[in-house]
Amino acid sequence: MDRAYKLFEEQQLARGIDLKQVHEKLKSIRIETPSWGYVNQGTRFKTFEKMGMPRNTYEKMEDAAQVHKFTGICPAVALHIPWDKVEDYTNLKEHAGSLGISMGAINPNLFQENEYMLGSVCNIDSKIRRKATEHLLECVDIAKTVGSDVLSLWFADGTNYPGQGPIRQRVQWMYECLKETYDALTPNMRMLIEYKFYEPAFYHTDLADWGMAFNMANKLGKQAEVLVDTGHHAQGTNIEHIVAYLIGEKKLGGFHFNSRKYGDDDLIVGSVNPYELFLIFYQILDAAADQDPAIQTTANNIAYMIDQSHNIEDKIPAMIRSVLNVQTQYAKALLVNLAEVRAAQEKQDVLGAEQAVREAFEMDVTPLLRAVREEMGVPCDPMSAYLQSGYGISILSRG
Amino acid sequence: MDRAYKLFEEQQLARGIDLKQVHEKLKSIRIETPSWGYVNQGTRFKTFEKMGMPRNTYEKMEDAAQVHKFTGICPAVALHIPWDKVEDYTNLKEHAGSLGISMGAINPNLFQENEYMLGSVCNIDSKIRRKATEHLLECVDIAKTVGSDVLSLWFADGTNYPGQGPIRQRVQWMYECLKETYDALTPNMRMLIEYKFYEPAFYHTDLADWGMAFNMANKLGKQAEVLVDTGHHAQGTNIEHIVAYLIGEKKLGGFHFNSRKYGDDDLIVGSVNPYELFLIFYQILDAAADQDPAIQTTANNIAYMIDQSHNIEDKIPAMIRSVLNVQTQYAKALLVNLAEVRAAQEKQDVLGAEQAVREAFEMDVTPLLRAVREEMGVPCDPMSAYLQSGYGISILSRG
Amino acid sequence: MDRAYKLFEEQQLARGIDLKQVHEKLKSIRIETPSWGYVNQGTRFKTFEKMGMPRNTYEKMEDAAQVHKFTGICPAVALHIPWDKVEDYTNLKEHAGSLGISMGAINPNLFQENEYMLGSVCNIDSKIRRKATEHLLECVDIAKTVGSDVLSLWFADGTNYPGQGPIRQRVQWMYECLKETYDALTPNMRMLIEYKFYEPAFYHTDLADWGMAFNMANKLGKQAEVLVDTGHHAQGTNIEHIVAYLIGEKKLGGFHFNSRKYGDDDLIVGSVNPYELFLIFYQILDAAADQDPAIQTTANNIAYMIDQSHNIEDKIPAMIRSVLNVQTQYAKALLVNLAEVRAAQEKQDVLGAEQAVREAFEMDVTPLLRAVREEMGVPCDPMSAYLQSGYGISILSRG
Amino acid sequence: MDRAYKLFEEQQLARGIDLKQVHEKLKSIRIETPSWGYVNQGTRFKTFEKMGMPRNTYEKMEDAAQVHKFTGICPAVALHIPWDKVEDYTNLKEHAGSLGISMGAINPNLFQENEYMLGSVCNIDSKIRRKATEHLLECVDIAKTVGSDVLSLWFADGTNYPGQGPIRQRVQWMYECLKETYDALTPNMRMLIEYKFYEPAFYHTDLADWGMAFNMANKLGKQAEVLVDTGHHAQGTNIEHIVAYLIGEKKLGGFHFNSRKYGDDDLIVGSVNPYELFLIFYQILDAAADQDPAIQTTANNIAYMIDQSHNIEDKIPAMIRSVLNVQTQYAKALLVNLAEVRAAQEKQDVLGAEQAVREAFEMDVTPLLRAVREEMGVPCDPMSAYLQSGYGISILSRG
C-alpha cells in the first residue's frame, strides 16, 4: 500500500495537485448521519423487520457513533422530532458526547399526525397551522438545548388533485409560519429549507423545486438557506447545475444525500450515478476557489447530511457505505485540476475541458483514502473493520 | 334534461353515430372494483385513519355493493389474498350474491412477509420460491371456489442495487413458478400478468414493462395475458400505443385503472389526463371494429379493473368517482366516428384525423349517461345519490 | 344551434355562472401567433418541404392575417429577428395594418450564427457577448419602430459536457447583457424571459427553469417578467403550479403555447393533455379574481403567444387549430364556479373541490363559442370556413 | 508506468482476476464507428459548420481509419445509404482495405425523402412502402457487395397525433416489408432491429421499445435480433436490465452507443453516467460466463457500434474519446469478480454483492489499458497521440 500511495503521490505531483491541501480537506469534511437511518424503514408495501434495531434515541446514538468510529468524519447525528423526543435532552447530549458524537440538525415532523392530512403550515385551517408553528418553535428550542445550529425543514404539504387547495394562499401561509420560526432563531442558527418534486403529495407540492425554496429563503433573510436533497428532482434534472447556481446566489445551505433511479427511492448515495455526486463536489470545490470571498464562504459552509431510509440493507453497514461513497467522490473531485479546466474553457476546448474533469473521476483514490485514514487514526478499510468488530452481532440481543 | 338528450341525439345522428349501439355498449361494460380500495391506505410516510372502514371482507363486500348499486356497472369485486382470506369462501360468495355482486379477480400477495424481502418467485432461495408457488396455487383454488375466472398477478420482485440478484436466472425461476400455476388453471380461467416500472424494487423489477409480461405470457400459453396498470410506466410512455399493440398480438387481458402524475401515485383514474383514458378506449373500440374476429374477441374480452389506494379521499365516493370517470371517457370514445378517422388517414390528412378523434372527446356526454342510467334503473347522478343515501354516515358506527 | 345555446345558457345560469362576463372575456382574449409558424420547420432529421410557404415577412403577415380573419382573436404576430428582418419596418407595419394585424413580441435570435456555438450572452468570449448584446439592442430598436411593447427572450446558451463552461460566471455575463438591454427599454415595454429545460444544450441550459428566469427578472426590475413555454419542462412538472406561483409573485409575463409528450416536441397546443391547458387557465382566472389588485393586474396582463414549429401539418390550419384549442380550454375554465371550489376547500372536501373544477372541463363549449363568434362577426366554425375559403390553394402559386 | 502496471497486476492477482483473459478480451473487442459521425451534424436549431469535414465517403473512410490507427479496435465503419452511396462499392472497399479498415453495418435511410413524411415501411400508401422495401433490398445488396454481414435498421416511422395512423395495421405493414428483406439475407447475415422511444415521431413510434423490436425479430426468425441504442429509452429505464433480458432470450444483436441526459442527445458515450455503461458490460460478461453455451454465444457476438452526432465537438477526437470511454468501462467490467458476486447473492448479502460489482468500477484501469495498447502496437495515450499527429490540421485544407 505504501507503494501504491507513493505512486499516487508522484502522479498527482506531476498533475500539479496540492496533495497537502487534499489531505486537509479530506480530514475536515463532516457528514452528518440521520437518526432515522438506523431503524426499520419501508415502502408503502411493507416495512421488513430487521433484528437489532435501536429501541430508543440513546441506542440510535450508539449506532451512529459506530459510523463515526470507523470513518472518523461523522461526529454529528440529525434528530427527528418527535421520533427522537426524550425527556431530558441535556442527558441525551451527554450520552452522545460520551460516545464522541454530538447533535446535528433538528428535523421537525409535520406529516405523521392525522390533522396534517391536508397540510401543516399550508393547511387552510388556521388552528392546524398554529399547531404546526408551535412544533417548529419547539424544535428551535430543542436545537438551542442540544447545541444544534441547524433547523432542517421538509414539508409534506401539497395536494393530490386540482382544486384541492388554494395554491397562492398556501405560499403565504407557509411564509407566515416560517417567519415566526425564523424570528425565534438565535443569530448563529441556520434554517435550511428543503424542496421536493412530489410525494407524499401527488398533484402539487408547496415547495416543489429549488426555486420555491430559494424564494422563500430570500424572503426570510440571511439565516435561511436552501437544502438540496439529491433524490428530490424531476428525472433528467441537472443537480450540479442547481448546486452551482445556489452557491452563486450564496443561498446553498446543505445537502441531504441519497440516490434514486426512478422516484425518491432513498438508495445509498452514489450507487446509481456516482459521476453525478462527483460533479456536485466539483462544482462546490470550484466555488470554494472563487475570487469572491462570499462565494468561498458559502461553498465552505455547506452542511452535508445523509438522508436515506434503508429498506433491505443492514442499517449500520449501509450508512458506512454511504459515507464512504461520499468520501470517495469528494476525494476524486479534489483531484480535478481547476486551472486546467479553466484553461480549456478559455480556449473553447470542449473535449479538453471535459477530459480535465472526467480524468479525476477515473482515478483510484483508494491509496489516498487509506493514507488519510491512517493520519486520522481510523481503519484503512472502515467497512471490513466494522464487519469484523462484532458490533452488528452484539446488538442482536436488542431483539 | 329530456331536451338535452334530444339535442344530443340529433347531433350524433347527424354525425352518423349509431346511438343504439352506444347505449348497449354503455350498459354492458363492467368495471371491477378492488376490495383493498375500501380500506385505509397510505404512503410510506403515513396512513391516515378514516372512520367507518370495513372491518373484514364481508364489510368490504357491502361497501363495494354500494358502488354497484349507484352505478350499475360494478358487479364484481377483486379479492386480495391473504387480506381477504375468510374461513368459508362459499359463505362469502353467498354474502356477496345477496348484495348483488360477485367475486372478481383473485390477487395473490407475495410481498408482505419477511421472507419475501429479496423476492418471492424470483428469490434465489428455492424454499421461498416454493412457498410463493404454493400461495399461487392456493389462489387458483380460491378462484375455483368463489367462481372467479381471473388470476391477477403482480410481483414486487426486483432488486435495489446492481449485482444484488442474478437477473437472467430470476426470469427462469419466475417462469417455473408461473408454469406450475398456469397448469393448475381450469380451461375457462385466465392468468393476467401485470408489469411495473419500479417500486417497491428500485433498481430493477423482474417484470418491468409490457414486453417482459408479454414474453412470459407467450411462453405460458393461451390462457396467459398481459394486464396493463395505467400507473406503471415510465414518464412519457404512450400507454394507448401499448394497448393497441397488445390487442394486435391478441394478448391484452385486462387493466388496472388509476392515474399518476409522477410515480405510481394511485390517484383517481382520469384525474390527471382524462384524454389519455379516452385514447385508450378509442384504441380498444377501433380494435373491436377490426375485420379480424380474433382481434375483435380480444378487444371485447378485456377485464376492466380499478386499482387505487386512496390516501386522503373518502373511499366509497372516490371509487364511485373513479367508475364515473371511466364511464365518461368510454362514452366519449364511443362517439368517435371511426369511418371518418379512417377516411382522413387514407387521405394522409393529419389534422383531419386528429380532429375526428378529438371532437368526440370535447362533447358533453352527461345527457347520454343520464339516459343510459335511466334505462339501467340507477340514479342519473350516482355521486349525489350516494352522498344523499346516508350510507356513508351509517358506517361510521364501525368505528 | 340556437336551441343548443339556449340550453347551455340555462345550465350555466343554474350553476351561477355570469355568462355576460364569460362572453366579454372570450371576446377580449388575444393570442399572438409566431411568424415562424407559417414556414417550413423540421426536426434534426429532416425538414419536409411544403408548397405555398411564404417567401418573405410580408407574406408571413398575410398568412397570419388569415388566422385572425377566421378566429378574430389573433391580431398580432410575433417577429423573429433576423428571420423577419426587412429594409423598412414602417412599411412592414403598414402592410400588416392594412391586413388588420399588428406586430407583436420581438424575438431576437442568438443561436444561428457560427460564433454562438458555445454561447451568446454567456459566451466566455467577451466579443461574442458584445455582439449578442448589440443584437438585443437592435431588437429593442425594432420594437420601438414597429410599435411592439414586448421583447421576448429565449437563449440557447448552455453546455453539452461537464466542465465545458464556468456555470456561475455565465449567470453574471448574462445578467450584464440583459441589464444593458433592460436599460434601453422604454417604460411601456416588457422584457419576457423564457427558460428551457434542455435543447439545444444537452448538459446544462443557463436558464434551465422558472426559478432561474424568475431570479434574473427580479434582479433586472419591474419590466422584466417570466415567460412560460409549456413545452420547456421536465417530465411530470406541474406547470399550472408554476403559473399560479409566478402570478402570486407578480412576475408572470407571458406564455409560449405548444404541447409535448416527450421532449420539446412542439405539437399543437392542447393536443396531448387538454386538461393541463384548462388547469393553467383555471389558475389564471382564479388569480384574476383575487382580492389583491396587484395579483389581478398580473393575471389580466399575460401575453398569450403560440410558439410551435409544425413539421408535418399544414401551417395555417395548424395555427387555427392551435388557437381554437386555446380558446376552447379558456372557455371551459371560465365555467369553473370559483366560489364553489373555495367552499369545498374550506370544508376540506377533496372530492368536492376536484369535481367543481373538473365538471367545467367536461362541458361542451361549442354552443358558447359559436355564440361568441357570431357576436364577433367571425365564422362559427373557423376551421371549416378557412378550409373552404380557397386561401390554402391560392398560395400554392408561391411555389 | 511499468511500476503502476506491476502494482495493478499484483492487486488483481490478489483479487483472483485472470489478467491473461482480461488482456485477450481487451485486445479482441471491436467497436464500429459510423461514417456519419465524421461530418457536420446539428440540432434542429443549427448545424455548426466545422472546417476539414470529409467531402465524400472515401474521405470519411480516411478519418475513420485514424480512429482505428490510434485505438487499434475500430477496424470497421458503418455506412449510411444513400449518404455513403458511391458508384463503385468494390473500389470503396479496396480504398478502405488500403487504410486497414473494412465496411461494417449497412444502415438504410428511410426518413429523408419527402415521401416518407408520414412513414416509410408503415406508410398507409402501399407505393411508398414498396419504395421503402426496394431501398431495404438495395441495402442488402450493398452489404453483400462490400462484405458486410449486418443490416442495421432504424425507422423514423410513427405519428405526431392521436388518430393520425392505424397503429395495429402499421405493425403488419412493417412486418411485410421486413419479411421480404429478411428473406433476401444470406445465411451469414444478421438483421439488427433498433427501437426508439420518440423523435422524430412525437406521439407514437412504431418500434417504440425493446419489446416491439424483440417481437418483430422473433417473428422474422433467427437472423433477426434487437439492437439497443443507449439513448433511445424513457427516463429512468434500466438499460442493463434490458440487455441482460435480451441476452437471456438470445436476441441481443448489437449496440448503438451514445449518452443522453434528457432526450436522445447524442452525447459522447460514457459522458453522462459512466457507471451505467460499466453495468451494461457487467451484464454482458456475466452472460458470457453462463453455463448455457447459447447464452455465451449471444454474449460473445454482440456488434458494438458508436452512433453519435457530434454537434459542437471536433469529430475525430470526439470519436476517439467515445471509443476510449467504451474501452475503459469494458476494462473495468472485466475486473468484476463474478464468483464473488455470485457468492454474495447466494448469501442474500445485498451490500456485499453491490460492493463486489462497484469496486471494479472504482479501479483505475489506466495501467492496464496502457499495457494492452503496448501489446497491440498502438499509442498508450491514443488521444494525445492523435492530437499531436497533425492529421487534424492536415484535413483543414479540405475546406
How does this model look, in words?
By secondary structure, the first copy, chain A, is α/β, with parallel strands linked by helices. Chain A has a single domain, classed as TIM Barrel, CATH 3.20.20. Helix content of chain A is 49%, strand content 12%. The first copy, chain A, is built from 16 helices and 10 strands. The first copy, chain A, has helices at 2-15, 19-28, 57-71, 89-98, 126-146, 167-183, 210-220, 239-248, 274-288, 293-300, 315-334, 338-346, 350-361, 366-376, 382-389, 391-394; strands at 31-34, 76-81, 102-108, 150-153, 158-159, 190-194, 204-205, 224-229, 252-257, 303-306. Chain A starts with a helix and ends in a 5-residue tail after the last helix. The model of chain A has no long low-confidence stretch (mean pLDDT 97). The interface between A and C is large, with 58 and 58 residues. Chains A, B, C, D: GO terms for molecular function: L-rhamnose isomerase activity; metal ion binding. Chains A, B, C, D: It comes from Paenibacillus foliorum. Chains A, B, C, D: One of its GO terms (biological process) is L-lyxose metabolic process. Chains A, B, C, D: This is L-rhamnose isomerase.
